[in-house]
Amino acid sequence: MAARRPQRRPVVELYERVVEAIRQGDYPPGSTLPSEPDLAADLGVSRPALREALLLLQEDGVITVRRGVGRTVNGRPARRGFERLQPIEGLFSADAAKIRPLARVVEEPTDLVMQHLPVPASCEIWFWESVVDIDGVPSGLVEEWSAHDEGLAAVDPGLPAALAEAEAQPSTMLHVVSELDPYLPLSGSSAMSATALGRRRGEVLDRSPDTPVVLITQVVSVERTPLMAAKYVLPSGAPSIPVRQSR
């Protein structure tokens, strides 16, 4: 079988261009990015494409949006931090929730991935994207990244084959990892924030780009070594997820 070639989606390429401009000092920490029309003209891209990349930059803590101020470059990424580690399909009724695979590809890591996973910029990583359908209605989006074969094999020799075999299966990456070895010492940290759905995700979920969403960013580790990074996008109107609390 021919080797896979790493891919970069257009929004990822644009995201990386802005990050590189920040790294080079064109937009230093604390500065305000140019207006959306000016920045789109500077980068030679359309405003809808730029808006999608800016949403991702905001989600990842690279920039902060303040009313009356604009988009400010942060000095350091926002801290990440899900209350209970389990695949998202396990948080809904098993009969109602179905995972629909969208993408199962090998690509180069973004800055977000390298913030959370111990991988070099030149390596390949897995990217899985899945829709959560509830009673046949698109109700959520799951985006997951992990180290590729060597990094996975270092955790469990069966992981590379398990993910490869599950590419077309209706499962999230976390479900595959959890099912392979129920005793694997997994731990996770998550953070929740509010944002807008955006154009591309809106097309996937058949919602308006302006739809409010809850975004859960998660890092899954094995004995303190990060293994996976994930985003769970839950638009308004999606079924609630129980969160247990105690004191």
TrEMBL record:
| Keywords tagged on the record | DNA-binding, Transcription, Transcription regulation
Key word Heme present = no
- Record-annotated HTH gntR-type domain positions: 8-76
Tell me the CDD domains matching this sequence. WHTH_GntR (cd07377)
Report TM segments.
Answer: none
Task: Tell me if Protease is a UniProt keyword of this record.
Answer: no
Q: Gene3D superfamilies in the record, alphabetically?
A: Chorismate lyase-like, Winged helix-like DNA-binding domain superfamily/Winged helix DNA-binding domain
Q: Can you name this protein?
A: HTH gntR-type domain-containing protein
Which organism does this sequence originate in? Answer: Saccharopolyspora halophila
